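Example 5.3 — peptide-methionine (R)-S-oxide reductase
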Amino acid sequence: MTDFKLISDTEWQQRLTPEEFHVLRRAGTEPPGVGEYTDTTTEGVYSCRACGAELFRSTEKFDAHCGWPSFFSPLAADRVIERRDTSHGMVRIEVVCANCESHLGHVFEGEGYGTPTDLRYCINSISMTFEPAEPGKQ
Ligand SMILES: [Zn+2]
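Solution (predicted structure tokens):
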């Protein structure tokens, strides 16, 4: 089994497109409103585009009108790692994949969205691959 934490930058560059590499491995951010999953409401599971680990479900996705796919909770708490991020002169909480430590986005708290957690996992579409649920199967 691949240990995704040991993959070198050179190998990531071969595995990912330049755009994916920039966001996943260089903590980049895709522009708002352009991501392919921003408005997706189809039932299914979002996996890490770098390693394939399942990260988020459509059942926790909500429309935050912020320009990026937003979730109020990950699929399971141990699927993501949250780290303090002080880049760009801001204090934010970065969200990375627990399996491969690729950058996914940030999580914001207390914005009053009326979701069960009052958290907004603001995730780049390009960091994820969406798999629609098969009809009749959970
Ligand atoms: Zn991953």
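Remark. Residues 18-26 form the longest helix (9 residues).
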